[in-house]
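Let's practice the habit of predicting before peeking. Look at the sequence and jot down your guess about where helices and strands might fall. Then scroll down.
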Amino acid sequence: MTRLALFSDIHGVAQALEAVRAAIAAASPDVIAVAGDYAVNGADPAAVIDGIRELEALGALVVAGNTDIAVADFDYGAAYPWLGDGVPESYRSAATWAHDAIGPERVDWLRRLPAERRFRADDGTLVLVTHASPGSQTAGFDGGLDESVFVDRLGRTDARVICCGHTHVPEVRDFGWKVVVNAGSAGYVFDGDPTASWALVDIVDGEITAEIKRVPFDVLAAADAVAARGLPGDVYRAATIRNGKLVR
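Done guessing? Here is the structure:
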């Protein structure tokens, strides 16, 4: 048996990362995978990156998310292609603040992160870790996605298990031939439950069992720290953290 713990989209919320790490440690996984978006939005991106790097040093599979591109290099077209030329100032100011807050050495670490990681479970099952979907950091497995588009994105990898985040809404979808495990967000969730989400996956002789887990964290402290920062859009970011639902 191979047990995998997956989480994603911490978005600078150190309180959530601490809670998720504790929950994962209690589950004793064989592999930990982290699917991107580490720095923008929350008030403590440096602490989040340091925590992820500690896991990476212990063997965790870590990939970059789309907002990590914005924070590292201010390439907003790559990070938010759906916005075209209309990237709001609130996005730009948050990326600039996070870039300065984490400092050059952590920025270089973000730049070095791969877009995807793969590994084989003990039974040979191929697992892909990506931020949004195979081959993309921005085209995710959204809940309202047309079924044909969903299946097309599934077919862009030979992996049986696709581990991702990006949508901020946790979900497991088992198609038989493939299983998509979307861990949602550990820090900035959009499904109305203001807790950190993560996923636990067991792979045994070709059978995949995946479960979404939730863990509470100090939501008010995280939201208050963002509200006190005073960047454009911070009042909405704080409300999103507090409510577990996107506010804008």
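How did you do? The mean pLDDT is 96.
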